[in-house]
Design a protein that fits this description.
Blueprint: E1 2-3, H1 15-41, E2 46-51, E3 66-72, H2 76-88, E4 93-96, E5 110-116, H3 125-135, E6 136-147, H4 153-169, H5 179-185, E7 188-196, E8 206-213
Parallel strand pairs: 1-4, 2-3, 2-5, 3-4, 5-6
Antiparallel strand pairs: 6-8, 7-8
Bound molecules: S-adenosylmethionine.
The site of S-adenosylmethionine has 20 residues, from loops.
Length: 222
Protein backbone atom coordinates (compact mmCIF):
# COMPACT_ATOMS: atom_id res chain seq x y z
CA UNK A 1 0.00 0.00 0.00
CA UNK A 2 1.37 3.40 -0.90
CA UNK A 3 0.20 6.73 0.48
CA UNK A 4 1.44 9.67 -1.53
CA UNK A 5 0.95 12.77 0.55
CA UNK A 6 1.73 16.37 -0.18
CA UNK A 7 5.35 16.71 -1.30
CA UNK A 8 7.45 17.39 1.77
CA UNK A 9 8.90 20.56 0.26
CA UNK A 10 12.53 19.57 0.84
CA UNK A 11 14.49 18.66 -2.27
CA UNK A 12 16.30 15.52 -1.15
CA UNK A 13 17.22 13.77 -4.35
CA UNK A 14 20.28 11.55 -4.66
CA UNK A 15 19.70 9.35 -7.71
CA UNK A 16 23.21 7.87 -7.82
CA UNK A 17 23.32 6.99 -4.14
CA UNK A 18 19.86 5.45 -4.44
CA UNK A 19 20.91 3.45 -7.51
CA UNK A 20 24.00 2.08 -5.75
CA UNK A 21 22.58 1.75 -2.22
CA UNK A 22 21.34 -1.86 -2.32
CA UNK A 23 24.50 -3.01 -4.05
CA UNK A 24 26.70 -1.16 -1.53
CA UNK A 25 24.74 -2.61 1.38
CA UNK A 26 25.04 -6.21 0.23
CA UNK A 27 28.64 -6.71 1.37
CA UNK A 28 27.97 -4.92 4.67
CA UNK A 29 24.85 -7.04 5.24
CA UNK A 30 26.94 -10.19 4.80
CA UNK A 31 29.52 -8.87 7.29
CA UNK A 32 26.90 -8.46 10.01
CA UNK A 33 24.60 -5.58 9.11
CA UNK A 34 21.73 -7.95 8.22
CA UNK A 35 21.89 -9.50 11.68
CA UNK A 36 21.97 -6.06 13.34
CA UNK A 37 18.95 -5.04 11.27
CA UNK A 38 17.10 -8.19 12.31
CA UNK A 39 17.83 -7.46 15.97
CA UNK A 40 16.76 -3.82 15.99
CA UNK A 41 13.65 -4.35 13.86
CA UNK A 42 12.84 -7.40 16.00
CA UNK A 43 12.31 -4.98 18.91
CA UNK A 44 9.41 -3.31 17.07
CA UNK A 45 5.77 -4.07 17.79
CA UNK A 46 2.30 -2.70 17.10
CA UNK A 47 1.91 0.34 14.84
CA UNK A 48 5.41 1.17 13.58
CA UNK A 49 6.92 4.24 11.93
CA UNK A 50 10.29 3.82 10.21
CA UNK A 51 11.96 7.17 9.50
CA UNK A 52 14.25 7.48 6.48
CA UNK A 53 13.50 3.95 5.38
CA UNK A 54 15.65 4.29 2.24
CA UNK A 55 15.31 1.42 -0.21
CA UNK A 56 13.41 -0.66 2.36
CA UNK A 57 16.21 -2.94 3.51
CA UNK A 58 14.63 -3.48 6.95
CA UNK A 59 11.25 -4.54 5.62
CA UNK A 60 11.98 -8.25 5.27
CA UNK A 61 12.93 -8.43 8.96
CA UNK A 62 9.75 -7.16 10.67
CA UNK A 63 8.29 -9.68 13.13
CA UNK A 64 4.70 -10.90 13.21
CA UNK A 65 3.85 -8.73 16.26
CA UNK A 66 3.92 -5.65 14.03
CA UNK A 67 0.48 -4.62 12.80
CA UNK A 68 1.71 -2.17 10.16
CA UNK A 69 4.90 -0.34 9.17
CA UNK A 70 4.68 3.22 7.87
CA UNK A 71 7.92 3.98 6.03
CA UNK A 72 8.73 7.66 5.76
CA UNK A 73 11.25 8.57 3.06
CA UNK A 74 11.91 11.96 1.42
CA UNK A 75 14.04 10.85 -1.53
CA UNK A 76 11.82 9.55 -4.32
CA UNK A 77 14.74 7.66 -5.83
CA UNK A 78 15.03 5.66 -2.61
CA UNK A 79 11.27 5.48 -2.21
CA UNK A 80 10.80 3.85 -5.63
CA UNK A 81 13.27 1.13 -4.73
CA UNK A 82 11.42 0.43 -1.48
CA UNK A 83 8.15 -0.24 -3.33
CA UNK A 84 8.87 -3.82 -4.48
CA UNK A 85 10.24 -4.71 -1.03
CA UNK A 86 7.10 -3.27 0.60
CA UNK A 87 4.99 -5.71 -1.45
CA UNK A 88 7.09 -8.69 -0.37
CA UNK A 89 7.25 -7.68 3.30
CA UNK A 90 5.87 -10.10 5.93
CA UNK A 91 3.75 -7.31 7.46
CA UNK A 92 1.53 -4.59 5.92
CA UNK A 93 3.56 -1.59 4.75
CA UNK A 94 2.64 1.89 3.60
CA UNK A 95 5.14 4.32 2.12
CA UNK A 96 4.88 8.03 2.84
CA UNK A 97 6.96 10.83 1.41
CA UNK A 98 8.24 13.22 4.06
CA UNK A 99 11.03 14.32 6.38
CA UNK A 100 11.53 13.35 10.00
CA UNK A 101 11.72 16.99 11.11
CA UNK A 102 8.06 17.49 10.11
CA UNK A 103 6.33 14.16 10.61
CA UNK A 104 2.93 14.26 8.91
CA UNK A 105 1.23 12.25 11.65
CA UNK A 106 -0.91 13.02 14.68
CA UNK A 107 0.61 12.99 18.16
CA UNK A 108 0.72 9.60 19.90
CA UNK A 109 0.16 7.54 16.71
CA UNK A 110 2.90 4.91 16.93
CA UNK A 111 3.98 2.17 19.33
CA UNK A 112 7.48 2.00 17.86
CA UNK A 113 9.62 4.33 15.78
CA UNK A 114 12.51 2.64 13.97
CA UNK A 115 15.64 4.53 12.89
CA UNK A 116 18.53 2.76 11.20
CA UNK A 117 21.51 4.62 9.74
CA UNK A 118 19.44 7.77 9.41
CA UNK A 119 20.25 10.30 12.16
CA UNK A 120 23.66 10.77 10.48
CA UNK A 121 21.86 12.24 7.46
CA UNK A 122 18.86 14.17 8.79
CA UNK A 123 19.46 17.91 8.42
CA UNK A 124 18.08 18.77 11.88
CA UNK A 125 18.48 15.65 14.03
CA UNK A 126 17.31 17.36 17.25
CA UNK A 127 14.13 18.52 15.47
CA UNK A 128 13.56 14.95 14.27
CA UNK A 129 13.98 13.57 17.81
CA UNK A 130 11.37 16.02 19.09
CA UNK A 131 9.00 14.83 16.37
CA UNK A 132 9.68 11.20 17.26
CA UNK A 133 8.81 11.94 20.91
CA UNK A 134 5.62 13.66 19.73
CA UNK A 135 4.32 10.77 17.62
CA UNK A 136 5.11 8.01 20.11
CA UNK A 137 2.14 6.70 22.08
CA UNK A 138 2.48 6.59 25.87
CA UNK A 139 4.58 3.46 26.49
CA UNK A 140 6.04 3.61 22.96
CA UNK A 141 9.72 3.68 22.13
CA UNK A 142 12.31 4.50 19.53
CA UNK A 143 14.55 1.62 18.51
CA UNK A 144 17.74 2.54 16.71
CA UNK A 145 20.85 1.30 14.98
CA UNK A 146 23.16 4.22 14.22
CA UNK A 147 26.81 4.91 13.64
CA UNK A 148 28.04 7.57 16.05
CA UNK A 149 30.98 9.81 16.88
CA UNK A 150 34.00 7.89 18.18
CA UNK A 151 34.91 8.23 21.86
CA UNK A 152 38.64 8.40 21.24
CA UNK A 153 39.84 11.92 20.35
CA UNK A 154 42.08 10.69 17.52
CA UNK A 155 39.33 8.83 15.74
CA UNK A 156 36.82 11.63 16.36
CA UNK A 157 39.29 14.06 14.73
CA UNK A 158 39.57 11.72 11.74
CA UNK A 159 35.77 11.71 11.51
CA UNK A 160 35.70 15.53 11.63
CA UNK A 161 38.29 15.61 8.87
CA UNK A 162 36.44 13.17 6.62
CA UNK A 163 32.92 14.48 7.25
CA UNK A 164 32.89 17.04 4.37
CA UNK A 165 33.93 14.34 1.89
CA UNK A 166 31.55 11.74 3.32
CA UNK A 167 28.69 14.25 3.14
CA UNK A 168 29.35 14.80 -0.55
CA UNK A 169 29.81 11.16 -1.46
CA UNK A 170 27.15 9.64 0.78
CA UNK A 171 24.13 11.92 0.40
CA UNK A 172 24.70 14.05 3.50
CA UNK A 173 26.00 11.38 5.90
CA UNK A 174 27.92 12.84 8.89
CA UNK A 175 30.21 10.22 10.45
CA UNK A 176 31.05 12.58 13.35
CA UNK A 177 27.61 13.01 14.94
CA UNK A 178 27.00 12.36 18.63
CA UNK A 179 23.56 10.93 17.97
CA UNK A 180 23.09 9.46 21.44
CA UNK A 181 23.80 12.91 22.92
CA UNK A 182 21.22 14.39 20.53
CA UNK A 183 18.60 11.83 21.57
CA UNK A 184 19.14 12.80 25.20
CA UNK A 185 19.28 16.56 24.66
CA UNK A 186 16.16 16.59 22.49
CA UNK A 187 13.84 14.80 24.86
CA UNK A 188 14.40 11.04 24.87
CA UNK A 189 15.82 8.83 27.55
CA UNK A 190 18.02 6.00 26.35
CA UNK A 191 16.93 2.87 28.22
CA UNK A 192 19.00 0.30 26.39
CA UNK A 193 22.19 0.69 24.41
CA UNK A 194 24.78 -1.66 23.04
CA UNK A 195 27.94 -0.87 21.17
CA UNK A 196 28.28 -2.72 17.88
CA UNK A 197 31.74 -2.87 16.34
CA UNK A 198 30.99 -2.69 12.68
CA UNK A 199 31.84 -0.56 9.66
CA UNK A 200 34.92 1.16 8.20
CA UNK A 201 37.28 2.93 10.65
CA UNK A 202 35.74 6.37 10.16
CA UNK A 203 32.14 5.09 10.43
CA UNK A 204 32.22 3.36 13.80
CA UNK A 205 31.19 2.50 16.39
CA UNK A 206 27.56 1.70 15.79
CA UNK A 207 25.06 1.65 18.63
CA UNK A 208 21.90 -0.42 18.87
CA UNK A 209 19.29 0.38 21.46
CA UNK A 210 16.02 1.92 22.49
CA UNK A 211 14.81 5.19 23.98
CA UNK A 212 11.57 6.51 25.44
CA UNK A 213 10.27 10.05 25.89
CA UNK A 214 12.04 11.57 28.88
CA UNK A 215 9.85 11.52 31.95
CA UNK A 216 8.37 8.08 31.27
CA UNK A 217 9.03 5.26 33.75
CA UNK A 218 12.30 3.35 33.44
CA UNK A 219 10.81 -0.10 33.69
CA UNK A 220 10.83 -0.79 29.96
CA UNK A 221 13.94 -2.27 28.38
CA UNK A 222 14.77 -5.20 26.14
C1 LIG B 1 21.91 5.91 4.83
S1 LIG B 1 20.26 5.92 4.31
C2 LIG B 1 19.56 4.70 5.41
C3 LIG B 1 18.37 4.04 4.82
C4 LIG B 1 17.75 2.95 5.70
N1 LIG B 1 17.26 3.49 6.95
C5 LIG B 1 18.69 1.82 5.94
O1 LIG B 1 18.91 1.45 7.10
O2 LIG B 1 19.20 1.26 4.95
C6 LIG B 1 19.61 7.44 4.98
C7 LIG B 1 18.18 7.70 4.54
O3 LIG B 1 17.68 8.84 5.23
C8 LIG B 1 16.91 9.59 4.31
N2 LIG B 1 16.81 10.98 4.80
C9 LIG B 1 17.60 12.03 4.54
N3 LIG B 1 17.17 13.14 5.15
C10 LIG B 1 16.05 12.76 5.84
C11 LIG B 1 15.14 13.47 6.66
N4 LIG B 1 15.30 14.76 6.92
N5 LIG B 1 14.10 12.79 7.19
C12 LIG B 1 13.95 11.46 6.94
N6 LIG B 1 14.79 10.75 6.16
C13 LIG B 1 15.84 11.39 5.62
C14 LIG B 1 17.66 9.47 3.02
O4 LIG B 1 16.86 9.80 1.89
C15 LIG B 1 18.06 8.00 3.06
O5 LIG B 1 17.08 7.19 2.49
Amino acid sequence: MTDRIEPCGKAIRHPWVAALYDWLCEAAERRGLAEHRRRVVGMASGEVLEIGGGTGRNLAHYPAGVSRVTVLEPDLHMYRRALPKSRRAPVPVRLVEGVAEALPFRAASFDTVVATLVFCTIADPAGAVRQVARVLKPGGRLVFLEHVRAETPGRARLQDLLTPLQRRLAAGCHPNRDTVGTLREAGLRVVQIERVEFGPPWVRPHVLGSAVPAGEGISRGG
